[in-house]
Design brief:
Structural class: alpha+beta
Shape: elongated
Length: about 220
């Protein structure tokens, strides 16, 4: 039998497989984006039923298989189940996972990205700053981790936007979600981030489509 390893991360996607199994896309600190197969996880009596949903942070005990990893046990550290209660926050949270699944890479240590997702979801639940600002902070910090950022805004911007841009890039992740912006500065920040994202990821996000319909 192959040796069991422990991968720490977050479930980005959870999809049905065969009759009762699940296929998980998990971003792990140790090995980046991986596929984990959870046998029997869709059965009502499965011990994996709750721990193989999206937004779950956990330690996954797995063994290597031919097309990913096979799940043996899970130690959940955070469920983030409260996000699903609010449709708007659920859309923002889903977008965070969608963008992460596109930007994350396989076989690449991803501790910073996992931590960024965690504090961003915590910020959504805390509801201390606007969800729109949380989205923009997350996007710019993801661009930084992906190496596709610019030191200053790519478009002509106000001094306040330039300062905010550099603050987001440089501040410790635990202090990212500790400020608010005027509508004008947030709009300018958003335009600059959208400019970079269109170059990096010309992708239609399902979560953003739904968000635009309900807001």
């Amino acid at each position: 039998m192959k040796d069991e390893i422990i991968l720490h991360g977050v479930v980005l996607q959870s999809a049905p497989s065969r009759d009762f199994d699940k296929r998980l896309l998990v971003l792990t600190k140790e090995r980046g984006k991986v596929t984990i197969w959870a046998a029997g996880a869709r059965k009502p009596t499965s011990r994996f039923l709750a721990s193989t949903r999206t937004f779950v942070f956990a330690a996954f005990h797995v063994t290597e298989g031919k097309s990913g990893y096979n799940l043996h046990s899970v130690e959940v550290t955070e469920f983030f189940e409260d996000i699903a209660i609010d449709l708007v926050k659920a859309c923002y949270g889903s977008y965070i996972l969608e963008l992460s699944s596109l930007m994350a890479q396989e076989n690449l240590e991803s501790t910073d990205m996992v931590n960024l997702i965690f504090v961003s979801l915590r910020a959504l639940i805390a509801d201390k700053i606007p969800d729109k600002l949380i989205r923009r902070i997350f996007e710019l910090r993801m661009l930084l981790l992906n190496g596709s950022y610019t030191e200053t805004p790519p478009l002509e911007s106000s001094e306040a936007t330039v300062y905010t841009w550099q603050y987001i890039l440089s501040t410790p992740v635990t202090k990212l979600y500790s400020f608010t912006l005027s509508d004008a500065v947030l709009a300018e920040l958003s335009q600059n981030i959208d400019f970079l994202l269109r170059q990096e990821i010309p992708y239609d996000f399902k979560s953003l489509r739904i968000l635009n319909e309900i807001q």
